[in-house]
């Protein structure tokens, strides 16, 4: 699967975002080492605190279906800029896939790829 295909899957998932409070839509697509793909969108809540990010939606879907070997995650949003995963999502990704690569795309078609180690050095370990 190409970066473009994974970004496209993230974009499709973004259309399902439930974000009436921020009006900011995020989509994520997680590529597993066996080729399976899990997607997610942000799901907001009136309490705000119960909001779930797109990345964690995708991770939790995958883990709950027995997949933990993640290779790439693509993230897109309705904002103009590259959308970097929040700190909580970085830590959640580190739990399962410290070597994962993160593919981001902004509205000007610029694509950027980072390792999780670049975005979250010294992640918490118990
Ligand atoms: N959001 C994500 O889905 N992923 C991130 O990494 C950052 C933020 C969502 C949460 C909320 O619904 C909206 O973006 C604004 O914070």
Number of distinct helices: 4
Question: β content, as a range?
Answer: 15-25%
Rg over C-alpha atoms, rounded to the nearest angstrom: 13 Å
Estimate the helix proportion, in percent: 25-40%
Report how far the terminal alpha carbons are from each other. 34 Å
- What is the N-to-C succession of helices and strands? HEEHEHEEH
Shape: globular
What's the total count of β strands? 5
Mean pLDDT comes to 97
Write out the distinct hetero groups bound to the structure: tetrahydrodeoxyuridine
Structure description:
The protein has helices spanning 3-14, 54-64, 87-96, 116-119, and strands spanning 26-32, 37-41, 70-77, 101-105, 111-115. It starts with a helix and ends in a 7-residue tail after the last helix. The protein has a five-stranded mixed sheet. The protein is of the alpha+beta class. The chain is built from four helices and five strands. The site of tetrahydrodeoxyuridine has 13 residues, from helix 2. Residues 19, 22, 24, 26, 42, 44, 51, 53-55, 85-86, 89 line the site of tetrahydrodeoxyuridine.
Q: What features would you highlight for this structure?
A:
4 helices; binds tetrahydrodeoxyuridine; alpha+beta; 126 residues; five-stranded mixed β-sheet
């Amino acid at each position: 699967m190409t970066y473009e295909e994974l970004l496209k899957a993230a974009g499709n998932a973004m259309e399902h975002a439930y974000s009436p409070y921020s009006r900011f839509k995020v989509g994520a697509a997680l590529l597993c080492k066996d080729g399976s793909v899990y997607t997610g969108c942000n799901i907001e809540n009136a309490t705000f605190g119960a909001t779930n990010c797109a990345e964690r939606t995708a991770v939790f879907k995958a883990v709950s279906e027995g997949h933990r070997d993640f290779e790439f995650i693509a993230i897109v949003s309705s904002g103009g800029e590259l959308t970097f995963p929040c700190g909580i999502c970085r830590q959640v990704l580190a739990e399962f896939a410290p070597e994962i690569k993160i593919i981001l795309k902004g509205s000007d078609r610029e694509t950027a790829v980072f390792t999780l180690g670049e975005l979250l050095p010294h992640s918490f370990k118990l």
